[in-house]
Amino acid sequence: MIRRALLVLLCLVSGACGDAQAAPAPSKATGHGSSDVPEIERPYDEDADAQAQIDAAVASAAQDGKRVLLVFGANWCPWCRRLDWVFQNQPEVSAALTAGYHLVHVDVGPRESSTNRAVAARYGDPISNGLPCLVVLDDAGGVAHVQETGSLEEADHHDPALVTAFLGRWRDGEAEL
């Protein structure tokens, strides 16, 4: 796969190959889009009781000293699915999450729906920042930080280094980015 990508790149740069050889690689997306950016198909449980999951995560955090990371998003949102792919498949991001956080996905439902709007309001209406949106809770359940995710993106994906740095900063409760 890497060899083919390098050959295609070399052909495109040199202009030495025809259109058939320069065809794009098959899509890696597993979600609803046709992008080549990898995604998780359905990271949000649309039937979950989000507040109950948050309460359980806060109780666990109180026991082990971790933080809680709420990820507000939806299965229809490509950027939400892309971020979850980074969480699950980038080793440095996965390690930072496991070491410092209890992760809770909060489904906001279809566009313009009221799904989990009361939950969002309880945490300062983070979805007004767009989707996905991250909320870091301390081990008592208080909001430590709200983070839009546009600043964690690079081109058409979330940058693992930026996501890891964010997780590291807020794991220990830094007050400023």
Structure write-up:
It is built from 6 helices and 6 strands. The protein is of the alpha+beta class and 177 residues long. The protein has 2 domains: 1-30, no CATH class; 50-171, Glutaredoxin. Strands 2-1-3-4 form a 4-stranded mixed sheet. The chain has a two-stranded antiparallel sheet with strand order 5-6. α3 (78-89) packs across α4 (91-100) and α4 packs parallel to α6 (160-171). The chain is globular, with a radius of gyration of 19 Å.
Poorly predicted regions: 1-34
The top level CATH class name of the largest domain: Alpha Beta
Series of H and E elements: HHEHHEHEEEEH
Q: Mean of residue pLDDT?
A: 82
Q: Nearest-angstrom radius of gyration?
A: 19 Å
Portion of residues in beta strands equals 15-25%
- Total E-strand runs: 6
Query: What is the domain tally?
Result: 2
Q: What is the CATH superfamily label of the largest domain?
A: Glutaredoxin
Give the oligomeric state: single chain
Biggest sheet architecture: 4 strands, mixed
Q: How many angstroms does the end-to-end distance come to?
A: 38 Å
**Residue share in helix:** 25-40%
- The CATH topology of the largest domain comes to Glutaredoxin
Give me the number of helical elements: 6
Structural class: alpha+beta
Q: Which architecture of the largest domain per CATH? A: 3-Layer(aba) Sandwich
The main sheet orders its strands as: 2-1-3-4
**Shape verdict:** globular
